[in-house]
Fold this protein.
Amino acid sequence: MFPNLFEATNEYWRQLDEIEYRYQQGELSIEEVDREVEILMKQLGQKRRESLRFLRDTVSHWISTHTELLIGFLFVLVVAYSWMLTMNH
């Protein structure tokens, strides 16, 4: 399942707003704010790592299953580029 980084970021900002509100109401000290923000940053960092890992695994899987297609496409690009170079001279 794809980790929803957009939703995790929105949740992060919502929780930051909540922490700010609680701080302004005097419910949290600055030290408590620092601790809670650090926890939120670690959670968001974990979601980002999960998203990057998922993307890397997906690309790796696609490349391994479509290797012949990729090699053929690169070959066509090299031939077309070489042809364009020879046409200019």
Q: What stands out?
A: DSSP finds three helices and no strands in the chain. Residues 30-65 form the longest helix (36 residues). Residues 5-87 form one domain.
